[in-house]
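Appendix B. Chain record.
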Amino acid sequence: MRFFNRTKVVHEPSYSQNWELGHGTSVVTDGVSETVLARISITSGSNCSIDLSGLATLNTSLQIFMSDGCHLILGEGMMVNGALRLFMHEPSSITIGSHCLFGGGDVWTSDMHSILDKDTGERLNPAESIVIDDRVWLGAEVLILGGSRVGRDSVVAARSLVTGKTFPDNSVIGGQPAKVLRSNVVWDIRIR
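Structure tokens predicted for this chain:
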């Protein structure tokens, strides 16, 4: 088992009991405290890349599951206030921009099972990568599915289901399935 950061290879850090990494998988942890790292559970296949260096606050837990060849980037200043689970059951990626705020929830790049066309056998639900741009606030218990892209400076309402669509910058989105509820917004972590 190997753990990486940008300056050196570290063997068996104290938080490693929660990490099961496949061969060739790298983890960048620069600037993340051991207290935060101890709240992260990682199970990965081979040849994955995980950049946790942007994680600023983790008040509960972060679970990461990746199959072979997956990639995860957490942007600078990311804050997580509720339990967050990230699932990549097939080669795909999750990219989370800078200064995002999560109230908790799930992010899934695939369905974990195949849905096939009965006549052709063609797979109808392949894995798709997910992008959450800079400064997105995701409320509690949000579910983000493969192929989704949430534009910068947006808000995703609590318990929303984001189903593989692209949402524009500066939007409030919500519902099941999610849709744009309001445009031309920004948000601030401080109450004004």
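Further analysis of this model is presented in Appendix C.
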